[in-house]
User: Fold this.
Amino acid sequence: MLHFSTDDLRPHERFDHWCEVRARNVFGVTISLEPERRLAFSGRMSAFALPGASVAQMRASPYHVHRTRDDIERLPSDSLCLYQQIGGGGWFEAAAPGKRPQQFFVTPGALATSNSDLPYLTAPTTEEGFNLRLIKISLSGDPQVAQVAQAARDLAPELVTPGHPFAPLLAASFDALAQAGSEETSDAQNVRDLALLILLARGRVTRGLPEARAAVRTGYRHAAQRAIRTAFHRADLSPAAVGAMLGISVRQVHLLFEPTGTTFARALNVTRLNAAHRLLMSSPERPVADIAASCGFDSLATFYRLFRAAYDMTPTDVRRAGAKV
Assistant:
């Protein structure tokens, strides 16, 4: 894991250092900022590697970015990119080879896809500056990804509209891969599936391919797991409820979990129990029944039974043990 912040540099050095080390040598772009705004500049970024890919998250003061043909020749990356705007907003201008430049704006939560080795211009549209994350998937490192690489060679940056059927699958898959340290989410197959989802969203591969169908199932599984993480507190959360969220059948929801070696019910209970365990430790005065209900358990007896089976301790035992630390 790489971490970098300008906070440790003197104000007059921050933008120049960011320009040379982060922009030029890491992202391969040319950046500019009015001289009178450079003393107030700040930036921080983190990045980590996955099999055949890398994930980066960045926050920085506003400036203008241009990935020129010289930048691409100097630092090519031959990658398929998925961007997600976390906060603020941004403006892009880019064009596929032989086409007129197109402009679009991104808002918080929005996604965009591209090939890394095409010129573009971008800048934040708010004073929040850059607040985004991106994943770059190598088109040459993995032979299975390389098989569809040609379909990604001319992908100029393009917004994935919120209503696009693949938007929730892309967002959920991005979340899964961004969770560094998880054995499943660091799996190379998840990276390959995300690459295919991007190309499906851009209309570059057909859904009828066996690999594409598998990638769609992976995307739906990540979306179902994301629904559990965000809505576990709902006592009525069920396969039917998640199926309705994702637009798939109850049977399809159950089938999504088969490759993981668990079931929807077990995944939901694990998420609820982990949340309850954290609350027991962090809120020692909060009644156990209140914690159980807030984590989606509509039966206190069921909560105690599942909790003891998971931790070999009662909630009260866990709270006492935490108080002794």
In short: The chain has twelve helices and twelve strands. The first strand starts at residue 2 and ends at 5. The domain at 2-205 is CATH 2.60.120.10 (Jelly Rolls). The first helix runs from residue 11 to 27.
